[in-house]
Here is the input.
Amino acid sequence: MGNLFQDVRYGARVLSKSPGFALVSVLTLALGIGANTAIFSVVSAVLVRPLGYPEAERLVKVWEDESAAGLSSQATVAPGNYFDWKAQNQTLEGMAASEFRAFNLTGDGEPERVISNGVEANYFSLIGVRPAAGRDFLAEEDAPGGAKSVVLSHGLWQSRYGGDPGVLDKSILLNGEAYRVVGVMPAGFEFGGARLWVPLALTTEQLSDRNWHNLEVVARLKPGVTAEQADADIDAITARIAAAYPDAAPQMRAAVVPLRDELIGNARRPLAMLLGAVGLVLLIACANTAGMLLARAAARRREIAVRCALGAGRLRIVRQLLTESLLLGAAGGALGLLFALWSFAFLRQLVPAGMQAATELNLDAPVLLFTLGVSILASLGFGLAPALQASRADLNDALKSNTARTGFGGQRRLRDAFVVTQVALSLVLLVGAGLLVKTLSKLRGQYAELRPESVLTVRTQLSGGQYKEHARRTDFYERVLSRVRALPGVEAAGYTTAVPLAWKGGMNGLILEGKQPNPGLAWNAMHRQATPDYFRAIGMTVKEGRAFTDADNETGMLVAVINETMARLYWPGESVVGKRFKIAGPSGNSETHPWLTIVGVVADVRQMGADAPVKSEAYIPQRQAGSFPFHAPRDLVVRTSVEPLSLVSAVREAIREADPAQPVSNVRTMDELLGRETAQRRLGATLVLSFAALALLLAALGIYGVLAYFVTQHVPEIGVRLALGARPADILGLVLRRGMTLTLIGLALGLLAAYALTRLMAGLLFGVSATDPLTYAAVALVIAAVALAACLIPARRAMKIDPMEALRYE
Here is the structure.
């Protein structure tokens, strides 16, 4: 132990005499260790840390899997199917259903649109979370005609009611009806993203419905049962349902998904990619530090030789040098923790939306242990090779020389290897970053024709009570649109069910005139309603036929506009204008619905997600869509010739004039909506690009260090060359050849590594191949240019060496 303390004291004293070297080494390591700590903290919080529910590993979500019919593999559930699952399963301790709802909250302040869920009475107890104040729902409240009660989220309780405990047992107005507040949920509870909950209260007719797929189902596994066993159990029940009701459930299956997997969604692979990226950054930081340690060990050859001559063994020398490396690693780790802590506010964006309220990024025990482990491994990684190399000093040679020029063959090869490694790893990171940046450009570029920066979207979802009648809804839309169109700077305005990317549902069955679907498959299309001028307002191009006009009203021929995908899928190679189809209602019955005549085809726009496949879409004039109130327009779209957000106040006033009690929500530009859709990808690309830039900087510093040391070592040789008639250009070529040779070797190895590793990120790409040659070529040229710049500084210094001074160097 005494020897250890002696090594630590001596190492600290030696490092203090080289503050520049110590500072650069610590900063380099801090960036590598800090980046790893920061990303690991996110990975730990999202993938490892227990969810905030009792025995959360037993919680699952249960979905209908309709992928065989070309629909979603995680579709909402029909009530009739759900109650069969609930009655017949052998693997679940309990099940509870919820239904998405939204209310206009009025009567005690500004009108506000509030996202909510209708839930069964056992919903909160099944999850294992009780209200922080009051109670949850009683069984009699969860029944048709039961008392109207509501449970508030902690966030709504604070923002709307100031955390007043007196709100309990008071009534609030939801869609104009009084609901009594019976409870307030704890802070951080965000199951389903709702801000309040009301009883589900399904009617007897709804309980048997197998066509209206509107429920989300959460369940708790029985002790000892796995999600796979529950999936097989529910799937077997679903197969019996599909056999008994072939018209309602063609080829339907079920999917049981662990709650954590459900909340994580698609975040697992991007997080793994980021963890791999920061791992490469740390390797580059270690290689850079190891290169500096090798150069420093060469300068300390005489010191090490003296210690060996005085009796210090090779193991003793290695231990001393490793102690110095551990001191650097410890300082880098401590500073890296500060860097990680500083980055948490930014990195919270990496947490999936469904986990953000209950997930905190902090330096807990696993993160601290990870940082400690990384610091130790990094210290050994960058310190061991230089220590072993330095301990091989030739005593006679080292003691006779006052310079570091002797015996540098092995060290030179090792430093060269570190530089090659840095260049290769930098190329891998830069290629990955380039592919992600190109993906982001492709994702946003597909919406360029919409000119999203000139489109303002505003949500005014009408309540079912006041606006139950179709005529009243139509009157509201027309009053709002007439006022908005009159505003200065407005080019076009229209209403639709949902703008692209804002709502990823609304599928209905179809009947095509004169055609029959394949057995067991259903024809479907996304159902959207729109007012005249909507397509011009959103920027959709009419490819064939025409858009809606004011003549497409209650007295006109019933018409529809479809997208290119629907036309290509159902009428391949045909002109679709004049073709007819029917849309099935919520019950699946299409007999009472009229034929719709196609009058136009609009360009495809990805509605379901920036990288989701385009679905068939059918647009119906709002004035002709009285039998489909569920799809009634809610999103106002305004195309402007001025900054869209500058019209927000005027648009709000126009809506207030049409209905003073109508809440306005989701006020944002289409460009902002697209930004939110691609936010996770943009953040991932930004981080990887930042890591790659850091890696490239470290690689450039490594190249510069090697060449600067090379020039210092070869000053006499360069002096001799110059004295014998060598031109400065020859000296320039000598140094550049050495630096660029290392760079080219690194590029070759990096290209091979990138070709192998980027295939692992193919699932994160869109519109670009994992082996995109332009990206590879551009990255290689960038690295070569940066390396050339790093080579020029020591090369120019070599050109300016005075031959006489060089010959007296010894």
Summary: DSSP finds 24 helices and 21 strands in the chain.
